[in-house]
């Protein structure tokens, strides 16, 4: 994120996840942008925290569990190799 605009964060999985909530869609249909924000802002913030927590858990597992880390790296290596070989063909 170094040097990136903070506004780039608005087009993220957090943004998309918040849009998937039916209450958010209903609020957009029934309100102007200011009142819509009362529903969207809370849903968006909840998604940001949810994703941050899951990434923290992943980082903990990756750092503390050798078996998990080795398996994760092995699978990533396999995917990268197959993709690069396919792209080169």
UniProtKB/TrEMBL annotation:
This is Uncharacterized protein. It comes from Streptomonospora litoralis. It comes from the Bacteria.
